[in-house]
Amino acid sequence: MKKLSGLKRVEEFFRSTGRSPFPFQREIWNAYLAGQSGLILAPTGTGKTFAAAMGPAIEIMDEAVPAKTKNVATKAPPLTILWITPLRALAADTVESLKAAAQRLELAWSIELRTSDTSASVRKRQKERLPTILVTTPESMSLLLSYPDSPTRFDSLRCVVIDELHELMGTKRGTQVELALARLRRFRPELRIWGLSATVANPREAASFLLGPANEHRSHIVRAPDDKPFAIQSVLPGRIERFPWAGHLGLNLLKDVITHVESARTTLIFTNTRSQSELWFRALMDARPDWVGDIAIHHGSIERATRQKIEQLLRAGEFRAVVCTSSLDLGVDFWPVEQVIQIGSPKSIARAVQRAGRSGHQPGVESKLICVPTQAFELIEFSAARHAVDHRAIEAREPVRLALDVLAQHVVTIAAGGGFDRQELFDEVRSTHSFAMMTEEQWGWVMDFAERGGPSLVAYPRFARIRRDETGRWTVASDAIARMHRMGIGTITSDGTIGVQFVGGKRLGAVEESFIAKLRLGDAFMFAGRRLEFVRVYQMTALVRAARCKRGTVPRWMGGKLPMSSSLANAVRLRLDQAADGIYVDDEMRHVSPILDLQRRWSAIPRVGELLIEQTTTREGMHRYIYPYQGRLVHEGLAAVFILRLARLGVAPATATFNDYGIELLSPSQVSLAEPEFRKLLSVERLAEDVVECMNSSELARRHFREIARIAGLLVQTRPGAPRSNRQLQASSELFFDVFRDFDPENLLMEQARREVLERQLEFTRLKAGLEQIAMQKLLIKECQRLSPLSFPLWAERIASQTLRLESSADRIERIARQLEAAAEASS
Q: Strands 337-343 and 159-162: what pairing?
C-alpha cells in the first residue's frame, strides 16, 4: 500500500472533522516547510492552533520510515515542538487539542504539559526524556534552561510556538520569553519560531519581538481573512439616571442578566475584578438557589484544582454559567459557550474582542457579547467599543525595553544551565528587541550585580551567584544557589498572599495578606463563591469555616480598576462629538441622550478638538473639572501635576480625584481661573521635572522597587517550608532600597524603578502626548451653577472614599443626585 504524504494525511484529518484547510493555514504550512518563521494573525476560532502545529506534523510524517511489521511499536520522537502559552488553563486546553489531532493522524507522539502544577513524577520523567510536544509557560521554559544539560535537551527541537502573543508583548513575561528564544536560537540556529494572535495591531514590532530586530525582515506574516462576525449589544436600564455614578447600576440589572443566562445553553459572565466576580456569583446564587451546581465562579485566586475541575465541566457543557475574570480571557476553547456577558466596560478594544471570542469559537460562527453597564456613561463606551471592533481598531502592544531585573535573573539561569561565555551571551542578549540598545556599560553592571551583588552587597556571599571557572566560562556559584534560584524564576509578582482553608478541610485558594490582617475572629467574608467565617491564621494560612450569616465583606485585590485604553478613549470622544450635534447613532447613545442633553444645557459636550473645563462653587469650595479623556492612569499623573502647579498659582491646598474621563480639583479658595492660568496649568513645559517632584517619585519608586528586587533575585519570596510574609518582604525591599540609595547611587535597578513608575504607573509617554494634544485644543471654560452630569461621577467618587459619620457616603450621593434631578426637572 502506497504511503500517503504528510499533507494528504492532514487533509484527510480535516475532512474527518467536516472541514477543509483554510488558504491561510496552507500558506503557513508551506512557509514552515520552506524553513521560515513568522506571525499568524487570525480571528478567534479560525484554527490558529492547527495552522501552527500541522507544518511540523507534515514534515515529520514525510520523514518517517514506516515500520516493517504492524506489531512493531513506534517510539515517540524526541522534543520537536515547544509550545508556550501565557496561561496554565490555556496550556491544558492546547494539550487536549493536540492530543486529539495526533490520535486521528495516528502519530506516535507524546504530548505533555509542564507548569508549576505538574506533578513530581511527571517532572522526573521529563527530566529523563522530554515529550515530542511540550506545552508550557514562560516560567517553566526558563526553568528548563536552568539545568546543566539544557544545551543537549533541545537537540531535536524544530519549532517554537508562542500562543496569544499579544498577551506577552508589553510585559516582563514577554521579556523573559525574548531572552529564552535568543538562547534557543543559539542552540538551534535553524529553529523556526511562530507567534499566534488575534489582536496584534503592530505586526512588524511583534515579529521583531519574536525573532529579534536582525531577523524581523525575514519573518513571514500571515493574515487570515478577518470576517469574524461580532454581535455586541447592551442591557439598557429601564430608568436612566441623569446623574450617574460608579457602580450605581450594576446589580440592579441582575434580573436582565438572569434572563439572558436562561436564553442560552452556556454563558460566560466576565467581570473586571475578582471582587466583582465574588459579588455577582453570590447575587446570582441568592436570586436563583435552584441553580446550585449549575453555575460556578472562576478567578486566579481560587485553588488550582478547583479551577481545573470547573474548566473540565465547562468544556463538557455541564454549567449554565460561569462567573469569571481574565482567568478565562485567552484562547480557551469551550465549545458549549453560546454567549458572553461583560459586566462593566471592557476598557479596551482588544479585551472586548478577546472576551466576545470565547463564544462562537468556530469559523464563521457569530461571537455574541452582551454588555451590562455599572453606570450609565458606560453605555457610551459600549457604543464606542462596538464601532471600534467593527473597524478592528485594536490597541498596539509595545514590548518592554531594558528590564535589567529580568536580565539579571536570566544571567543566573543561563549560568546554572551549563554556563556561558560573557561576550557570547552579551551578543545573544543584544539580538533581542528588548535589549538591542543595551550598552557595554549596562551589561558590565548586570554581570557585576550577578557576580557579587554590586559594590554595596559585596560583603554578603549569598549575592555572589555566578563565578568564573578555570576555563573562563561563567557558571552558577554553587548547587545551593542554583536550587534557590530555580524556586524564584519568573516575573509574576503580587502583593503577599495568604492561603484560605477550611479548618481540617480543603484549601480554597489565596487572598492578599493585607485583607486577612483586617479581620477579627468571627468576621464573615465571601471567597470562592462561599460565605466564610474567619477562625485564625496558622502558618500563613487563614483557617475558616462556613458562615451562617447572610452578609460578609469581599476581599479587595490590588490593581482592581482597569484603565481605559487610548483607542477606546478616542472612540468615546467621537461618540461625544456626534452627541454635541444632537446625533445619537444607536440604542446606547439614544438611551443616554437625556444625560447628554442636560450636559449640553448646563455646560457643554466637548468636541474632539476641545477641552472642557467646568468651575463650580459649593460649600466645600471651588471645584474645577477638567476632561482630557485619557484614562485613569494618565489622569493620576496629570492630577498630581495640576495640584503642584495650582500651588504655584497661589491656589492651595487642593485635592484631586480622577476617573477615566476627567479630574476634579477641589480647593477652599473661591477664586475662578481664566484661560491664561489654565494654559499654565496644562503646559507641557517642565513636565518630567514636575512629575518627579509632585509624585514624590522616590516614594513611588520605593514601592515599585519591591517587584524589581524580587525578579532580580534580591528577595527570596519562598524558602522550602518557610514562606515569608508580605511584611517581611516589604521590610527587606525597603532595606535594599535605602542601602542602594545611600551607598550605591549608580545602581541601575534604582534607575529602572524610577523609569517604570513614570512609564507603567503614570503612563508618562501618553501623559505628555495628552498635554501636547491639549495645547492645540480650544478651551471651553464653563462657570456652572451646580454639578453637571459629567462632573457628578467625579464628585461621587471622592465622596465614596470618605468616612462620613452622620450619613453614609452612598446616602449622601443619592441625596445630592435627587436634588440635582429636581433641579433638572425644574429647568427643562
A: unpaired
